[in-house]
Every structure is written in structure tokens, then in C-alpha cells.
């Protein structure tokens, strides 16, 4: 996994785009990865105007709680936090390992994706 916030963001982006049916779009001038026309990870603008972060939907209570222990992590804005969305910053010494970030992206994908695509992911 690449080093630094930009490297972590790029690795998460590559992982997300490798999931069945995933496509990248740029609403609001920011990168999102969607499946079946629904966002499963927000990747932000990718430039230096704002600190890098990812936002994912984590339905599992333990996983959600763990994500919120990351320094600076918070429920997502615009009311998304009430539905389990968490924004996790990719800066500072407390940034989670890339593997953990990808696990959270996969969890978000599994919540959003149609069952047939989740079955494809599982090799069924």
C-alpha cells in the first residue's frame, strides 16, 4: 500500500473500483464510487483544498464504533451519519492501515450492492 494520505486514498480508490459493478463518478466535483447507481464510498476531491478522507456506510455496530475511534472520524454530514455513514480522515498518525480502510469499503459495498453482485464478490 502506498504511503501518505494521497497513497491511502489512491489504494482505497483502486480497491473500490475492483469490486463487481463499481464505477467512479464526480458529482459535486468530488470522487465517489457507486454500484447500481448508489454511492458506497465518498473519496473527496483528491486535491489539496481539503484534508483527504473517505466516507463509508458501516451497518455492523462493532465496525461502526471502531471506525469512530479513529482520530478525527465522525458521523458523516448532511444527515448521512444517522444512517451509519462515517467520515474517516486520512491524515495524521492515527490513519488506519490501508487493509482496514479497504475492509470498511468492502463492508459499505456489501450494504449498498445488489445481492447478485455480493454473490459475485463471494465467488458464488
Q: What does it look like?
A:
GO terms for molecular function: DNA binding. This protein has 124 residues and is an alpha+beta fold. It has a single domain (4-117), classed as Aspartate Aminotransferase, domain 1. 35% of the residues lie in helices and 23% in strands. A 6-stranded antiparallel beta sheet has the order 1-2-3-4-6-5. Helix 1 runs parallel beside helix 3 (98-112). The longest helix has 15 residues, at 98-112.
How many runs of DSSP E, i.e. beta strands?
Answer: 6
Strand order of the largest sheet: 1-2-3-4-6-5
Average predicted confidence as pLDDT: 90
In the CATH scheme, the class would be Alpha Beta
GO molecular function, one term: DNA binding
Keywords: DNA-binding
Organism: Streptomyces meridianus
Protein name: MmcQ/YjbR family DNA-binding protein
In short:
Helix content is 35%, strand content 23%. With 124 residues, the chain is of the alpha+beta class. β2 and β3 (38-44) form a beta hairpin.
Structural features:
six-stranded antiparallel β-sheet, MmcQ/YjbR family DNA-binding protein, 6 strands, 4 helices, Aspartate Aminotransferase, domain 1, single chain, alpha+beta, 124 residues
